[in-house]
Design brief:
Structural class: mainly alpha
Distance between the termini: 89 Å
Strand order of the largest sheet: 11-12-13
C-alpha cells in the first residue's frame, strides 16, 4: 500500500506553483529586506524538511540493501552495484552528496530489533527529533554526528548522545548562553569541542588512521592535463597552505612614482585573471622546481633530480612539432620545452637514422649561485609588477634567448616567477635590459602610455630612488 506517493506528488505541485508564482510576480525582487530575510528562512526550513524525508528514504534503501543474500537486496533488484550508485541514479545527486546522505541516514535512522522487528532508537535520538522538526538538514545532522561518531568505540554511546543533546540545544537556540539557533558550521565546532573533551586520547588513533591513508597519486593523462588526487597529513597540508599563502600574496608594484593610478592617486594593481586553483597550481610548480634545484634532494645516478626533455633539432628550429618529458607519454609543446630549457642546461645528442649515438655535447646555460644572488639583490623578486613572488621562489629568465645569442650574464637575466616565466609570450608584458637594469612595458589595458619603466622590489634600489626624488 503506497502511503506517500500521492501526498508527495501534491506537495511537489504546491512547491511548483509557489515557485512559478514567485518568479512570475518577481516576489523576491519586490520584497523588503525584512520580507526577503523571512522568505529565505522559510525556503531553508522547507529544504530541511525535504532533507528529513530524503534521509529517511535513503535509510530505508540502506536497510533493504544490507540483507545477507545479495539476490534479496534492493540494489540487486534495481541493477545497482551498491547503495551509492542507486541513490545517485534515483536522486541525481553527485557522489559526494549521495555519500553525505548515506552518512546522515545511518546516524538518524531507527534500528529494527532482530527478534521482535520493533523500532529502536537511532544512534542520536535528539538529532533525529530536531531533523523531523525541520531544525536540522543534512548539513546540520552531519555537523553534529560526524565528530561524535569519530570517537566510537572509545567513548560510550550514552556520553555521545548526551553531547549530541547539548549541541542540538544550540541548534534550537536553547543553549545555556541563550544564543540564536546556530548554523551548521558553528554546530560542527561545538560537536568537535565535545568530541575532544570526551575523547582525551582521540588524537593518536586519528593520527594513526591519517598515516595509513596518506597518499598522492598521478592519474591517467587526459587531453587537458594529468589529474592528481590523494590525502595529505594535516601538517603537510598546513605547510603547503603556508607556502601558497606566501606565494599568492601580491605585495609589489612599479618603482614609486610610476604606473597607472586611480582617481584618488592609488596605484592600480595589474590584472591577474587566473583562478585561485590555477594560482595554487603555479605555486606548486614553482616549489617543485626549487626543490629539484636545491641540491638537498637524493641524487639519481649520482646527479640531482633532473627533468629531461627531448626534441628534434628540426622541430626546435621551426617552432613546430612536439617535445617529450621523460616519464610521460603525452607530448608537450615546443614553447614548454623552451621554458624548461631557459633555466637549465642543453645537451645535444646527435644520432644516425638507425639510432646510433655519434656525438654528445653539453652547453651550460644555468646562472650560477653568485649571479643569482646579484640578480636577486637587483630585482628583489619577480619583475612583473603586482606579482609579489620573492626572489628565492623565482626562476631566472634570459631576456635575449640563449638560442639567439643571449649570454648567461647578470645583464641578460631577470627574476620571474614560474607563471610569468611560463606564459611570458602570451600575457602581454614585455621585458628589456637597459644598461644592465630590467625595464618592463605593461600591456595596453594596464598602461595606455606603453612606456618602458624600471622595476624592482629591492629595498636598496627603492631607497635610492626615493632619495633621488
Amino acid at each position: 500500500m503506497d502511503l506517500l506517493t500521492t501526498p508527495l506528488q501534491n506537495l511537489r505541485a504546491q512547491v511548483r506553483e509557489v515557485l512559478r508564482n514567485g518568479v512570475d510576480d518577481r516576489a523576491f525582487e519586490r520584497a523588503t529586506e525584512t520580507e526577503l530575510a523571512q522568505q529565505l528562512a522559510l525556503v531553508a526550513e522547507v529544504g530541511r524538511l525535504a532533507d528529513a524525508l530524503l534521509l529517511d528514504a535513503v535509510g530505508e534503501v540502506m536497510r533493504r540493501s544490507e540483507l545477507p543474500e545479495r539476490d534479496a537486496r534492493m540494489t540487486s533488484h534495481l541493477g545497482c552495484r551498491d547503495v551509492a550508485e542507486l541513490v545517485q541514479k534515483i536522486t541525481r545527486l553527485g557522489s559526494q552528496a549521495a555519500a553525505r546522505a548515506q552518512r546522515g541516514a545511518k546516524a538518524v535512522r531507527p534500528t529494527l530489533s532482530d527478534t521482535t522487528g520493533e523500532h529502536l532508537d537511532s544512534a542520536f535520538p535528539s538529532v533525529r527529533d530536531a531533523m523531523l522538526a525541520g531544525v536540522l538538514g543534512v548539513d546540520g545532522v552531519l555537523a553534529i554526528t560526524d565528530p561524535l561518531q569519530s570517537t566510537a568505540p572509545r567513548v560510550a554511546v550514552a556520553a555521545r548522545r548526551d553531547a549530541a543533546d547539548m549541541v542540538v540545544a544550540e541548534a534550537r537556540g536553547e543553549g545555556p548562553d541563550g544564543a540564536p539557533p546556530a548554523c551548521a558550521e558553528l554546530l560542527k565546532i561545538h560537536a568537535q569541542t565535545w568530541a575532544i573533551a570526551l575523547d582525551q586520547d582521540g588524537a593518536e588513533p586519528r593520527e594513526r588512521a591519517a598515516i595509513r591513508k596518506r597518499a598522492v597519486m598521478l592519474g591517467v593523462a587526459t587531453p587537458s592535463g594529468v589529474p592528481i588526487r590523494g590525502t595529505l597529513l594535516p601538517e603537510v597540508a598546513a605547510q603547503l597552505r603556508t607556502i601558497w599563502d606566501a606565494l599568492l600574496s601580491p605585495k609589489v608594484s612599479f618603482t614609486p612614482g610610476d604606473g597607472e593610478r586611480d582617481a584618488e592617486g592609488r596605484l592600480i594593481a595589474p590584472l591577474d585573471d587566473r583562478t585561485h586553483a590555477q594560482q595554487q597550481h603555479d605555486a606548486l610548480a614553482a616549489v617543485l622546481g626549487i626543490a629539484a634545484s636545491s641540491g638537498l634532494l637524493p641524487t639519481i645516478g649520482g646527479h640531482a633530480p633532473t627533468l629531461v626533455v627531448s626534441v628534434t633539432a628540426e622541430d626546435l628550429a621551426s617552432d613546430t612539432g612536439y617535445a617529450y618529458a621523460q616519464g610521460r607519454a603525452e607530448p608537450i609543446t615546443i614553447t614548454v620545452a623552451r621554458h624548461i630549457a631557459c633555466a637549465g642546461a642543453i645537451q645535444r645528442v646527435t644520432t644516425r637514422r638507425d639510432g646510433k649515438i655519434v656525438e654528445i655535447s653539453t652547453t651550460e646555460r644555468v646562472f650560477n649561485r653568485h649571479q643569482r644572488r646579484a640578480i636577486a639583490l637587483r630585482d628583489g623578486g619577480c619583475v612583473i609588477p603586482g606579482c609579489g613572488t620573492p626572489a628565492a621562489w623565482c626562476e631566472i629568465h634570459h631576456v635575449l634567448e640563449y638560442a639567439n645569442g643571449g649570454p648567461t650574464h647578470t645583464d641578460n637575466g631577470v627574476l620571474l616567477c614560474w607563471f610569468h616565466h611560463r606564459f611570458l609570450d602570451r600575457i602581454g608584458w614585455k621585458i628589456r635590459m637597459n644598461r644592465g637594469v630590467p625595464e618592463v612595458m605593461a600591456p595596453v589595458w594596464f598602461d595606455a602610455s606603453m612606456r618602458w619603466r624600471p622595476v624592482t622590489t629591492s629595498p636598496i634600489r627603492l631607497r635610492a630612488h626615493l632619495l633621488r626624488t
